């Protein structure tokens, strides 16, 4: 018996109906969603990755709530402002999707407070949640973890549904590129989608490494503060090229080999 493979969420193409710069951002963000799924960083349809729309400082793109990451394409992303007002709703051919409130509150808070930030990524991985629940937080016990020696911490205030939490989210992130949401998960920001994805993958690796080391039940070998700080500075984008710059074209080629429909 011939089997029919179900199609992903149907959506009308927005190509040609937005600026070239917005379309490129849509393609990059859709690719980031697919890669996040590919690398096992998803929580079903929860969580969000957003990108600021070039030339529109008060607008950003985010995923439709209820669509899985491996279904996201460039045309299915919703454009909203910092207050969550919908600016562009894709045509889902009769299906109804919207923006998750917690998503636009978290992402809107960061985009509004940090105009230089293009992309914001938030995850609920088991490793990120585990480290977020440790009193010690993320320890600088590996070279990868030392990159995040200035990571911020945000105390758990319940599910992020209150506008008042936007101020404390922005305050706790400060000028850092990463934030641990206590008893919740991880957040990363960057000047590009590529940089932000690279940051989150490496932050996730730092969490995995710490949990593996702690699980051994033997003392952890510390590194002195001066070396940790020097290593952190070596990782700064102002010290070397921005993260993700070299890998991103290869990541897109990887996706194109697997399923290029993210570009639709």
UniProtKB/TrEMBL annotation:
SMART domains: Aldolase_II (SM01007). One of its GO terms (cellular component) is cytoskeleton. Its EC number is 4.1.-.-. InterPro entries: Aldolase-II_Adducin_sf, Aldolase_II/adducin_N, Aldolase_II/adducin_N_sf. One of its GO terms (molecular function) is lyase activity. Pfam families: Aldolase_II (PF00596). Keywords: Lyase. Residues 27-211 form the Class II aldolase/adducin N-terminal domain. It is an enzyme of class 4 (lyase). NCBIfam families: PRK07044.1. Belongs to the aldolase class II family. This is Decarboxylase NovR.
